[in-house]
Design a protein that fits this description.
This protein has helices spanning 4-15, 19-32, 37-45, 49-63, 99-102, 114-123, 132-153, 175-185, and strands at 72-78, 84-90, 106-110, 162-166, 173-174. With 186 residues, it is an alpha+beta fold. The longest helix is centred in the C-terminal third of the chain and has 22 residues, at 132-153.
Length: 186
């Protein structure tokens, strides 16, 4: 089974602005993959307020460096390095191809989420979509990380940039779509 498909489907639901539906979906899929209630509760018990505040503070700083030729900003976080984050300012953007992100030459480091890194290392055994339980845990962590970033970007009502988030080089969640679709449903 391709465990990554679960996250892909969840990210599409998120992009559609259906945050509650995405949470119900990812919780159900994680349970099917064998993630215990104890681990799920541990993931959802992590308070993300400080993480969100750090992301916002650093995003405010990044916005000072946005010029007319910047088309997108992507938050990349490393699941192998305690969720350490980097904002990439990108001169190009393509909805269907991640090349725009990889070609960025301007970046700014931001916060990390050590607790997620610890959970990933200990409970998922640092396995990136290799087995059912690890995949379920990682999907839950990615969901919470993405929603934390949605909460930050939702504070910028008039932002006219493409915004993404990713923890790999092959995909990204289009946060600009999430915020736009979420505003339409509010």
């Amino acid at each position: 089974m391709n465990y990554y498909k679960c996250w892909e489907k969840c990210s599409l639901i998120i992009e559609d602005g259906q945050i509650d539906k995405a949470e119900a979906y990812i919780l159900g899929e994680a349970k099917k993959m064998g993630v215990s209630d104890e681990v799920t509760n541990k993931i959802f018990a992590v308070n993300l307020k400080r993480y969100e505040n750090r992301l916002k503070k650093d995003f405010d700083e990044v916005l000072k460096h946005v010029t007319d030729d910047i088309q997108a900003i992507c938050l990349y976080y490393s699941v192998d390095d305690s969720w350490s984050g980097t904002y990439y300012l990108c001169n190009t953007y393509n909805d269907n191809d991640i090349e725009w992100f990889g070609n960025s030459r301007n970046w700014f480091d931001t916060g990390r989420m050590r607790k997620f890194g610890e959970i990933f290392e200990r409970d998922a055994e640092s396995a990136f979509f290799c087995d059912p339980v690890g995949s379920g845990i990682l999907s839950l962590l990615m969901y919470r990380t993405t929603i934390a970033f949605v909460n930050v970007i939702s504070q910028y009502k008039d932002l006219r940039l493409n915004i993404g988030i990713s923890c790999d080089e092959n995909s990204f969640v289009k946060i600009h779509n999430v915020v736009h679709n979420k505003q339409q449903t509010d």
